[in-house]
Amino acid sequence: MRIGELRHLVTIRVPTRTQSATTNEQTISTYTDSTAWAQIETLSAYERMLGAALDAEATVRITIRYNSAVTAGCLITHGSKTYHVMGVDNVDERNIMLRLNCRENRS
């Protein structure tokens, strides 16, 4: 991937689970892990159709440099949009690039 394609600055938020000692209630909070330059691509209708056959909801593919903290369940923020990471593909298993299949949070 050419560096010029990574033109969107995104914030990566990693979820953490905490449990109350008195009520045993679990809460999920997120903290900002890092920022990264990314390529954001909207999936084509054909790719969405293939994903629907696999029961996936991904609508956007985000490509970033390798970051071991990024896992399924992380949140990616770009401007006013927040994306939920559905799956992570370590491209060629080389720890250079990550391809994130995401869906936009609409809340």
Overall description:
This protein is mainly beta. The chain has a single domain, classed as Bacteriophage SPP1 head-tail adaptor protein (Thrombin, subunit H, Beta Barrel), CATH 2.40.10. Helices cover 8% and strands 53% of the residues. It has one helix at 45-53; strands at residues 8-19, 26-42, 60-65, 75-78, 81-90, 97-104. Strands 1-2-3-6-5-4 form a six-stranded antiparallel beta barrel. It is globular. The mean pLDDT is 85.
Structural class: mainly beta
Number of helices: 1
Mean pLDDT: 85
Quantity of strands, as a count: 6
Q: Approximately how much beta-strand content do the residues carry?
A: over 45%
Second CATH tier, the architecture: Beta Barrel
- Which superfamily, in CATH terms, is the homologous superfamily? Bacteriophage SPP1 head-tail adaptor protein
Summarize the main sheet.
6 strands, antiparallel, barrel
**Distance linking N and C termini:** 33 Å
Which stretches of 5+ consecutive residues score pLDDT under 50?
none
Shape label: globular
